[in-house]
Amino acid sequence: MIKFTVSRRQSLFLSAMFxxxxxxxxGKVVYVNHETGDNSWLGxxxxxxxxxxxxxxxxxxxxxxxxxxxxxxxxxxxxxRERMRLKIKGTAExxxxxxxxxxxxxxGSDISDGPWKKEGDFWSVNVDRKAMKSQWAIAFxxxxxxxxxxxxPFAGYGAEDFLVKKGEDGALLIRFPDGMxxxxxxxxxxxxxxxxxxxxxKYVRIRNLNVRGASNxxxxxxxxxxxxxxxxCSAILCGDEGAxxxxxxxxxxxxxxxxxxxxxxxxxxxxxxxxTSYTRCISAFGRGTGFAFKGKKHRLIDSYALxxxxxxxxxxxxxxxRVEVVNLVEIPDGPEAYAKARELAEDNPQMKLLVELxxxxxxxxx
Length: 366
Fold this sequence. Notes:
Blueprint: H1 8-25, E1 29-32, H2 58-63, E2 70-73, E3 84-86, E4 96-106, E5 109-110, E6 117-119, E7 122-126, E8 139-141, E9 144-146, E10 163-166, E11 171-175, E12 187-189, E13 196-199, E14 204-212, E15 219-222, E16 228-231, E17 234-236, E18 243-245, E19 250-254, E20 257-259, E21 266-270, E22 275-279, E23 282-284, E24 289-293, E25 297-306, H3 314-317, E26 323-331, H4 335-344, H5 349-360
Parallel strand pairs: 1-2, 2-4, 3-13, 4-14, 13-15, 14-16, 14-17, 15-18, 16-19, 17-20, 19-22, 20-23, 21-24, 22-25, 23-25, 25-26
Antiparallel strand pairs: 5-12, 6-7, 7-11, 8-9, 8-12, 10-11
C-alpha cells in the first residue's frame, strides 16, 4: 500500500479549495436596472456607477449569461417595459437563474382617460397596437376581458355590455354598457406580444418575476425547452394565457399565480408534446377554464382554479389519460370565488397577491 504524506500547509490549501470550488461553480451575477443602468457597464454590481454597474436592458444582460450565472433584475419604482426572450442554455449541473426580486414587467397601458371620442354607440381611442386577434382579449375593463366577438356574461356584466372593433388610423372602438362615460377607470390595453418567451431554452430557473399586459402569453415556452422551473411568478391581464407551453417543452411551475387573462382555453394552457407540472398554483378569474392540458403528460397538485368563466369545461380540459390531478380546489365564477381568495390570503402569499391585485385593477366582484 502506498502512503501519502500531506503537510499542514498543503492540508490548509486543499481545505480552502474544497470551500472555494462550489462557489466557483455558482457563476457570476449580472445586474440589470432599466432606471439607473447603462449598457456600456459590466453589470457585475448593483451600484449605479462605472464601470461595474448594472446594464440597462434585458437583451444586453442576457447576452452576458453563461451556465451557472444569475441574472438579478433589480426591483424599481416603475415597471420594466421590455419583453424578455430567453434563448439561453444552462446545464443540469449549472442552470441559469433569472431572479426577479419581485420586479414587474408591464407591457400594457392604462387607457382609462383616453382621450375618448364618441362614435355612435362606441367610444374610440387612438392606440399604438400592431395586432388584434379575435381569440385574444383586446383590452380589459376592471379585469373583464373585452373581445372582438360577442362577450359572455362575466363578473356581473351581460353579453351585450362590451363589444370592440377596429377603427380608422389605429383607433380602438369599445361599446361600454349604457350610460357609462369617460373616464372609464380600470380600462387596460395589453401591449407587446409575449412577456417572457422561452425559445428552446435549457435549464433555466425563473423566480419572483411578475408579468402583466402581454397581448399573447405572459410566460410562453416554445420549441424544445428543457429543465425549466418557474417559482413564485405571476402573469395577469394578458390577452391569451398567463402561461402556455408548446412544442416539446418540459417545465415545472411552483407557487405561481395566473389571473385575469383573456384566453378562451384557460388561464394556463399547454399543448402539443409538452410535459409540465403545476404545484401550489392559482389560475383565477380568466375567460377560459383554470387549467387546460392537451400535451403529452401533465401534473396538477395542490392548486386552485377560482372564478374562471368556463369552469364547467374543467373536466374536458383535464383528460385523465394524460393529466394527474391531486387536490385541485375549483370554485365557479361568482362572488364565492373571491370570498375564498380572501379567506386563504392570510396563509397563502399568492392568494394574498391576488386579493391585492383585485383592488388595484378595480375588480367588480371584490
